[in-house]
Amino acid sequence: MSIPVISVAQMREWEKASWAAGKSERDVIRRVGEILAHEALRMTKTGDAILILAGKGHNGDDARCVREHLAQRRVEILEIKDPAVDASKLDRLSSRPALVIDGLFGIGINRPLDAGWIKLIERINASRLPVLAVDVPSGLNADTGEPQGAAIEAWTTLTVGAPKIGMLKTQASRYVGKLVVGEDTGLIDCPLKSELNWTVPGDFCGFPPHRPVAGHKGTFGHLAIVAGSVGYHGAAVLASRGAQRAQPGLITLFAQQGAYVPIASQLQAVMVHLWPPKKQLPAGFSAVLAGPGLASPEVPEELKEQVRRLWHESETPMVVDASALDWLPAGVVSKNAVRVITPHPGEAARLLKSTSAGVQAGRVVSLREISRKFGNTWVILKGHQTLIGRSEGNIFVNPSGNPFLGQGGSGDTLSGYLAGLLAQPALREDVGKTIHFAVWQHGAAADVLSQTRPNWVVEDLIETLGHAR
Fold first, then answer.
1. Which residue, 9, 171, 181, 268, is most buried by CB atoms nearer than 10 A?
2. CA 88/CA 444 separation, integer angstroms
3. CATH classification (class only), 217-464
4. Regarding beta strands 178-182 and 287-290, do their DSSP bridges make them parallel or antiparallel, or are they unpaired?
5. CA-CA distance, 30 to 61, in Å (whole number)?
6. Tens digits of per-residue pLDDT, 164-211?
7. Under-50 pLDDT residues of the chain
8. CA nearest to 323, candidates 357, 370, 289, 359
9. Degrees to nearest 5, angle at CA 411 with 406 and 415
10. Is the dihedral of CA 387, 388, 394, 399 positive or negative?
11. What is the pTM of this model?
């Protein structure tokens, strides 16, 4: 059910195929209006004022169709067709409507705007009002992600049918805001394919699978977590609690000496042990997580070597995060062994001996290179619209989550939750889907929280993790 990320030309092909199949352009416009209205209602409350800016093309038609579905809002439509003539209409912005709907230009724009349009768009942006963009922020090139002289800075963009490739570019995020895909628009089923695929909640219908009624602790796996050092005990606690939300049968955490007491005193169901110096990790674990809270300079070289050996030789599924990413050896791993790494852009840059800006400028290429370098590992390249994939095959774009995930401990929670899922044998039948689900669920939990508790913290995230459906 994932949606391919496509170009403008591909979108036009899809539309033409739909008209040829007997679909009505007018019906599609009407349906887009309904979907836009649903998003506008979500962004406002009863009695709020909404200002619709409608241009000449079908983008403006989509915006006009919103009005009939907003009976409980005060709606005004401004027809903006010539900036020299219509600029004075923007004086209505001074009334501070709760939402502006941008229907000026669509995805067809591919040339620089003239000075009048640039000035008009800059005036809208200067108002700092919440903006819902129709299909694409007006002025943004939907293939390149670059503004054509200027572009609307939207809070949310509802794009029609499928995401356009330019909207996922790092430089486009300033204009696109939160990208929402209007799927059920009345077009025929999407006939297109892409290496990039947009995640939708329907991808996880019936997942995770139903647990057998006769299951017990041994049925659901035993996770080993190697985490926590002096000054960084909190990361180990958060990773453990994230893992608990995945509900593996057992969790054992191995901590460094100076961090043992503060970690053990905060965990009850998780068994906490000292890391055994100069010894192998005990056998019998169904998955291993290494890395959270191991940033102390006192972490011994023996531990780093043990993590490297496990990564290279063990057949046990392994998730590596945080400081342990820098310890990994390049090259192949044990055949068919599940390996997952979860770098943010800065960590990815270190793995590639590049820069964060370089990684962000080519996130798909960076993911592929990291996976190839480390034995075709699964890579979760974190950040806005986290990517999940390997050196070959499909890459999934995660749409869930929000900027409030940008706080210490969020990544530790994700790595723990993911490792807790992978520790369970039934959830390793489709490793890609399990990884995909963990990332989506982590972001969706943040979205649930942000709707009701704008000042939530990571401990709240852990409490909510697993509730999103």
1. 181
2. 41
3. alpha beta
4. unpaired
5. 9
6. 999 999 999 999 999 999 989 999 999 999 999 999 999 999 999 999
7. none
8. 289
9. 160
10. negative
11. 0.95
Question: Using an 8 Å Cβ cutoff, are 296 and 256 in contact?
Answer: yes
* CA proximity to 211, closest of 431, 430, 429, 426: 426
Which of these, 109, 103, 113, lies nearest to 142 by C-alpha position?
A: 109
Other Cβ atoms less than 10 A from the Cβ of 159: the count is: 22
Tokens 């100069």 identify what position?
278
| Architecture category of domain 3-191 in CATH | 3-Layer(aba) Sandwich (3.40)
- Could you give the CA distance from residue 92 to residue 222 in angstroms, rounded to a whole number? 61
Q: Where are the domains of the chain?
A: 3-191, 217-464
* Structure tokens, 243: 């893992």
Residue with tokens 């990361």: 235
Burial zone of 332 (CB within 10 Å; 0-12 exposed, 13-18 middle, 19+ buried): exposed
Residue 264's Cβ-side half-sphere holds a number of Cα atoms within 13 Å equal to 13
pLDDT digits (tens, 9 = 90+) for 152-164: 999 999 999 999 9
Angstrom distance (rounded) from CA 279 to CA 128: 59
Q: Is 60 exposed, middle or buried (0-12, 13-18, 19+ CB in 10 A)?
A: buried
